Queue: 4 jobs
Job 1
Amino acid sequence: MNRLPNLLTGLRVALALFTFFALAGAAVLSERLTPATQFALERWAFWAFVVAALTDFVDGWLARRLNAATVWGSILDPIADKVLVCGVILGLLSLGPNAAVAVPAALILFREFTVSALREVAAGKGISLPVTLLAKWKTTLQLVALGAELLVACWAAFSLPNDPAVLGPATMGAHIMLWLAALVTLVTGAQYWEQARRALSPPAGAA
């Protein structure tokens, strides 16, 4: 049972990769696939993403509940989160150009890679950048927003009513959530940057 949290984290990575390849396959092979197969891939991608996102909440809770927190788990968990977020963003972008998605998605990717590089540099100097409370909520907001965007992008695959009165507000709501997630993501990136700047700056008066 103590290995269950790490297994769930590993499952999240696998599901993230499946989500990306299913969406990319549905887009790239669209001319060779039947509509039914293409829609099936999109539905599988959506549900794989939902399950993967749920494991993000469950694995941490189980680790605390079972007193099974490990160094490996603390390393793998944020990696799994970033793989999931980046995977679904790239999968969404593969479905077609959409500026309302591409711009906030690019900002999120820019922040994630920048902070990862910043952490690596800081770790090389023996400095740890603690996760902020806002950063924890940031991941939740990203997953909810990306899930909404994925549902809207795969709307036809679920045979949902193609009524502008329904699809229009749903699309607008998804875009607003994604832009909000991008804004919070950038704020947390600035927080990490300030942490790193203070930690890496020489003490006042140092030669």
Note: Residues 76 and 200 are 25 Å apart (CA to CA).
Job 2
Amino acid sequence: MTQIFLTILPVFLVLGTGYLGARTGYLNAGVADALNNFTVKLAVPTLLMRAMYRLDFGQAFHIPMLVAFYCGALASFVVAILAARIIWKRRPGEAVAIGFCAMFSNTVLLGLPIMERAFGADSMAPAFGIVALHAPCLYTIGMLTMELSRRDGRPLGEALKAAMKSILTNAFMIGVLLGTALNLASVPIAEPLMAAIDMIATAAIPAALVGIGAALTRYSLRSEISESLMISALSLLIHPAIAFLLAYELLHLPMEYVRAAVVIAAMPPGMNGYIFAAMYDRAMGVAASSLIVANLLSVFTITAWLALLARVAGAS
């Protein structure tokens, strides 16, 4: 267990560096915006484009693995909405925003570096398969559910049109689609251009982690701690538990697919949950609080999931 904790610790140390730098004033107040702007609009889309360009689609898009992961995500979404409505008496739109936070794992900025750190670069293809579908599928589900739940919601056709526009103009999605198109068309990329792509892609993860850490200084726990703990439990425990039970116990998938489904599912909510809540001005306090609570708890829960994966792999 200690060795596994030490394996993922550098990822959280980089995140903590951003937090402490911004909290102490060593890094100026605008560093979070600058780094997040760089990573979201350029570095991470470049990383995803390169990954999709080099991806073996047959290995990445493994349907049973995707079923295991996304069943867990959708279950977390539904349970969080019901809990928010029944227990905390939230309005429909607020409940959907809370459900989205529980459903949308931080697959790119935390999931990918932890996956690579724990299992090596050769383990990444299945993880990229999950990531490629993550934003378009879950944003579509979240936006359509929100539009249908709000009293001031638009007609279904208009909601679907707005959702598709938001997805297709998302920088992450542009990177995925561009890399996929170049891969399928077997378009060669000249070495100087690929070297430049590699340089930008290499900067993506550390810059993103520092940016997330700096951004966390802006949020407080407020009074929504109980709802934040509910989101954390769904994100960090229920989602990966469902993925593990389906992938390992029911479908008996090879370990490379079990690892990808469980590790990516075990990630805490990321900035997308807060962005979604802000987009509709619903439950922003809960979304912000859950960022802090889930990211703190994830250091321990991710370690536990990696230990379980190591144990079952050893027993296979």
Note: The two ends are 19 Å apart (CA to CA).
Job 3
Amino acid sequence: MNSVDPTIFLILLQDGIVNGAIYALLALSLVLVFAVTRVVLIPQGEFVAYGALTYATLGAGRVPGSVFLLCALGIAACGYGFWAERRTLDLSATLRLLGETILLPAAVLVLTLWLAPQRAGIAVEAFLALLIVAPMAPYLYRIAFQPMAEASVLVLLIAAVGVHLAMVGLGLVFFGPEGSRGDAFSGATYTLGALTVPGQALWIVGATLLIMAALALFFGLTLRGKALRATAVNRLGARLVGIPTAQSGRLAFALAGCIGALSGVLIAPLTTVYYDSGFLIGLKGFVAAIVGGLVSYPAALVAALAVGIGESFSSFYASAFKEVIVFGAIVPVLLARSLLAAPEAEEE
């Protein structure tokens, strides 16, 4: 067995915390989406991969194919919106739908065609990558999940798997089989004793803490945030008091898309990302969300850090079994829950 001296221990702990920060963001978005819509968002990892690869493509001075996917999804979402709301659409609702689904992707496309060849800089490229990838999530909700919002969790899960497979295939088409890396936000390194901390790692941890604080303020202080919390607690009750659950679902997906795209942009400088890399990343966030019961944000956060640290130390002690150890950790949690859960009466 490999031995770990204090320096190696600190390095592994640092890597685990950085990875756990990304998994925490994904776990929080998974819990949010499931609580509001009952959708297990399997494609969350694809938003990470798309964000990283779009950012890397912009950094290379090329127009990413994902911007054309954004336009196609916007057109499809517009078509569904007109069909689903054809009896209630007025002028203001029509203009809002056109603005959200047609004008926004068109503006992003024009901006991308203009800025991509100019190599406008890291900040602009990162922001543009977010503009391209984040709106895909609410469009996907309109197209794939809103029509079956009242279906069972199993049906929604099957739909999520289908969306995941489609996005992986489209990722291969748009980005190719080769992996890519993006430019680091900061080339600085900081020395803490024997430990060297890259600036990008601090960006990841700092962004994670900032997003968590922003989400806490959003849920606690804003009307939309309180509406999301009400929808998560009781979807039917929220609808009865006038909260539009379809809009809550789109907002939850929009937040998940922003978090996934930002996570991809943050990790792009640290690791090579491929078109199918999002599946494993998202799956580790899913493990953390499951440990949190898909309902508890603090539990999901703690579980995500545990997954990241466990993965880091597993790669040192038994690298060949790293993934087995990480994903196997979910088994005792599920077993304990099945043994401790109170029996429920079967529905008539």
Note: The CA atoms of residues 45 and 282 lie 4 Å apart.
Job 4
Amino acid sequence: MILWFSGTGNSLAIARRLATDTGDTLMSLYDAVRSDLSKESTIGLVYPSYYFNPPQAVTALVERLSLPRNAYVFIVITCGAQTGNSVWAVERILRKKGLKVAYCHKIRVPDCSAIGFGRDPNMQKWKFERYASRLDVISSHIKAKRHSRYYGAPGLAGWICALPWVKRRTLPLLQPAVDEHKCIGCSVCMKVCPQGNIRMKEGAKADTGVAYISDRCVQCLSCVHFCPQQAVVIAGKPTPKKHQYHNPQIKIKDLIRR
């Protein structure tokens, strides 16, 4: 079983590819916490790296998983550049459950958070071709149930970014909010939010509501990238349409939680 978490589709696309190559089953982490995985011989986790750490949603969901102790466990991280403590932090949780991570690796993908710093993630699509061969290697390693560790050691950047006072200062840099003047109430952002953190509220327009982002945001920026009106801003800054990104193999319907 390969479990995934994804905001704009990069991790889902990688998880799909691994599932196809290995003949394994695919399931979102949100569905996994409500499922019986006790008979699974393989457990794979595919998720992105945020601020050199796993997304808060991932650590919270992994805490709730019920997993067989004799399973072959692997982790594959998608990231713009570095994994930081993204493997180590989840591995620590799994260790408390009596599981050992046998294999870990990373795949570099377009950095979706680049949009928050005025850069275009679409300019990084060259990473797909450059790292295609690495994905082939990862698939072959997993099929062979190889025990190898790449990019799994804890690092200083991850430690620093996880400090409470650092998080208080840095998280607002990528905090999304809705520009009510641009929002047309289409609810796309609400549908793609993995946390179910976006709701529609009555707006100034008589015929529609406007989106509202609550306080459980994990900053996957899915709402920012998928909004057709570019009405979701980051730290008060407008979102350029040309900088919006999602994995070309993934459609909105693939990310909607059912």
Note: The beta strands are 2-4, 26-28, 42-48, 72-79, 101-108, 148-149, 176-178, 198-202, 209-213, 232-234.
